[in-house]
Amino acid sequence: MNYQQFLEKLLNIENIDYAFCISKKDKQYFEKYNTNDILNNLAFSPVNYKEKKRIFNMLINQEIKDTKMLNGNIELVFERFRESYNIKDIAIEKYMIYFYEWILILTDKNITLENVKFLKKNITTNNYLFWYHLVKVFYNNSKFKETLYLVKYVKKEYIKKDNYLYNDLVLYQLISLKNDKEYLKDTNIQKKICKLSKQLKGFEYIQILTLLECAFLQHNIVDFKQLVYRYKKEILKWNIYQVLNVYELSVYLQDKEIINEISSMLNFKDIGSYNGSEEYDIYQFLNAIVQDDKHKIQFLYDRLRNNFDFSHYELFRKITINLKRI
Q: What pLDDT is stored for residue 86 in this prediction?
């Protein structure tokens, strides 16, 4: 079984070659090494990154003379993979890691949005599992900009709202948008995030926290309170760090009622027993903001500098400074 037969059976992909994610100009450089279709077979083989990279380097350095024998060995690997995974969804999910690793090899671990655009242009298949697991592997490797590009395309063309995988795409899109802290300054991105958080199902913590964050960003104290009281039972089940994330937003909203409400939740979860931990330092930092203890704020800010995301605090501080100037 060669790469064409393998891809057609597993992913319904035809007419693809090893250079699917690079420009025609870059392909010209590699083409001279594609003797007997060896780069094509190697590219799509379910072989781990380290071994595939080693073979690729040997081909580029012209250290392998018998490409026919190598092709024969790779074709056996295709057969073994097909025999190992009878369930198509599992087979595609496992395979997409190898697919992604070839892009890493061909780009020397420097995947950009341009590579994804070439990929979209050069791959034709209606297999929605391929597109879903492609998004997932980019997301799992923290390629958030590329994930957003792919999600938009896949939601439009292959996975609609009635598909059981649609909700996962919403999650990947939501988290990818939030990964870029510019969203705290960009109201258009905030609107997208808030809309997605309302669509999300089954990811309780992420959904509730994002809804609370939306209320915070809109400085909507009424909505924030309603959300806290509505989801109080759920919030009390979260771990201490997750509850602290809610407490942080309530502190920056500067509403005494809601600050006291979340503080009582933290006491219920015995925040005092965390004394000496990073979680307790965060708690003390937030309390110092409530008390406007500037010395303690600075001390704990410096202490937490490398372990805590101060994005919301910086936004709060900027808003507070601007209000004082009015």
A: 86
Tens of pLDDT, residue by residue over 225-242, are 999 999 999 999 999 999
Tell me which residue has tokens 């969203």: 183
Report how far residue 288's alpha carbon sits from residue 298's, in angstroms, rounded to the nearest whole number. 9
Find tokens 């071994």 and name the residue.
51
Residues spanned by the domain of 281: 220-325
The count of structural domains within the chain is 2
Instruction: Answer with the one of 119, 138, 158 that is the final residue of a domain.
Output: 119
Contact 100, 21 (CB under 8 A): no
pTM greater than the 0.70 cutoff: yes
267 vs 238, 242, 257, 259, 315, CA distance in Å? 13, 14, 15, 12, 27
DSSP 202: S
Q: What is the DSSP code string of 231-243?
A: THHHHHTS-HHHH
pLDDT for 322 equals 58
Secondary structure (3-state) at 268: helix
